[in-house]
Design brief:
- By secondary structure, this protein is α+β, with helices and mostly antiparallel strands.
- Helix content is 21%, strand content 15%.
- It is built from six helices and six strands; from the N terminus they run E-H-E-H-H-H-E-E-H-H-E-E.
- Strand 5 and strand 6 form a beta hairpin.
- It holds the Pfam family HATPase_c_3.
- This is SMHD1 protein.
């Protein structure tokens, strides 16, 4: 790597966790992406890519929400799909003591690309591992534990109040991925953890599958 003998460096995960003798076997596994940096918080000079592998057939992702949505008792299923996406933002902003900002944008300008639904919030953001976990099928925010780092860490299910804004508004519980693929053909998640300078982006596309 062209490192001088008197030069200090660190090896970290994409979550900026430094690799040490104590945690090597835990953090360094087949397929993991590592950074070689001068310091843990060094600014990256360019964007990096990390390959994510998961097993379900793409039909599992792009069609698994269809039954629930089409069985919505004759009602328009689109609000239920949007509720899944808003549910994520409500949970991500639950610890904010100031103003919680959640925006829903419907984009139809062909000059900017294909039509899209954008849900934007000022939540705490997700690390690369949390974003990876979001892509895993049927990984409930209430069962993610231990090393399977959750984007809902510390979230406590509130007392049941029908249709309240407490991050339990999702109607069918089929998850954000299924909601996305009910509405469209691809998902793009862009997230910056509140305590990090890194911005992480995940793209799931039926065309790519």
């Amino acid at each position: 790597f062209g490192i001088a003998t008197d030069e200090n460096f660190v090896i970290t995960t994409t979550n900026r966790k430094e690799i040490t003798e104590d945690n090597f076997s835990e953090l360094v596994q087949d397929g993991v992406t590592l950074y070689l940096l001068q310091s843990v918080d060094q600014m990256l000079l360019s964007a990096t890519k990390e390959r994510i592998d998961f097993l379900p057939h793409y039909d599992t992702l792009v069609k698994s929400g269809m039954y629930e949505y089409y069985a919505s008792e004759g009602q328009n299923p689109l609000p239920f799909a949007l509720a899944e996406l808003i549910d994520n933002s409500l949970s991500a902003t639950s610890r904010i003591t100031g103003i919680r900002s959640i925006q829903i944008k419907l984009l139809f300008d062909d000059s900017q690309g294909k039509p899209a639904v954008a849900v934007i919030d000022n939540g705490r953001g997700m690390t690369s591992k949390q974003l990876n976990n979001w892509a895993v099928y049927r990984l409930s925010k209430f069962t993610r534990q231990g090393d399977f780092e959750s984007d809902h860490s510390g979230y406590v299910r509130p007392l049941p109040v029908p249709r309240s804004l407490n991050s339990d508004i999702s109607y069918f519980g089929v998850g954000g991925k299924q909601a996305v693929f009910f509405v469209g053909q691809s998902a793009r998640m862009i997230s910056k953890p509140a305590d990090s300078q890194d911005v992480h982006e995940l793209v799931l596309s039926k065309e790519d599958f």
